[in-house]
Amino acid sequence: MHKPDLAALYPQETLEALSDFRFPPYISLAHIFNAPRDWSFSGRILKQYALNYVIGGRGEFTVGGGTHVVEKGDVFFYRPFEAHGLRSLPGRAFISITVVFHFADTPFPMEDLLEGAHMLGCYAGHAVEHHFAELVAKYRLPGLENRLECQALLLTILAETSRHASGRKQEEAGRRKNLARLILVKNHIENHLDRNLDVPEIERLSGLTWNYIIVEFKKTFGTTPMQFLIWARISKAKELALQSPLSFGEIAAQVGYNDIHAFGKMFKKKTGMSLTDFCSSLYNTDHHIQWPNQKS
Description:
This protein is of the alpha+beta class and 296 residues long. It has helices spanning 11-14, 110-114, 127-139, 144-191, 199-206, 210-221, 225-243, 248-254, 260-271, 275-285, and strands at residues 26-34, 40-44, 49-56, 58-63, 66-71, 74-78, 84-88, 95-102, 119-122. The protein folds into 3 domains: 6-169, Sandwich (Jelly Rolls); 179-221, no CATH class; 226-285, Homeodomain-like (Arc Repressor Mutant, subunit A), CATH 1.10.10. Keywords: Activator, DNA-binding, Transcription, Transcription regulation. This is AraC family transcriptional regulator.
């Protein structure tokens, strides 16, 4: 007699065949799949939960309007009645472990654990990798003790991937919080161009250490705070030269230089021309611009 495809059935339809599972979670499939060349499917809908662990190769997983490239170590997840697709990508053979399961009528806080996620992270070399392999091996063996171990392994995988996802969320929240602090530092620098960097003040303002600020500021804005200060001073000097009646000495003071000669050397070093040459070059380009009367 043909054995039914338990993974394709409604949860309640599997219970008789899964009678050796005395309570949920009920695991209707746990196997290793070696995809043929150019293998794919799309628009598939299961009536149960499914976890996939990529053993090797690369694939393209689609679900919920999103597409994800998956490779060795990646765990991805789809829910009952979510249309999804998967195809192997050229290169090494795509091999994965699939675990299909459900909780019958027993409520389970799946969304409290995974919060809508489909990609659960990469676990190459992690204990989760071994849990998947052991689950598949135990699933092939009869006996209540093996069923209990399969259930324990599945719940451990869910707990570990949930913990990993939670850690990523906390890390992302920390990055967003620190980004706001770095923007605060950047704005502070721009608003105090007439002063040198006051490190203790910036640390108090941001709640971050100066060494951390230097590293993260460069990662975020592509420049160190000191380099940004110089760039902002040059930009402000250009703006004032073109849009205000201030003398070059007054402009220098407004961007933090009491010595006009030191300001001139800095400006020429960074731009390759003096402030006078800068204004003249623009005037020669556009004769319609009316420049204020400048005094050096």
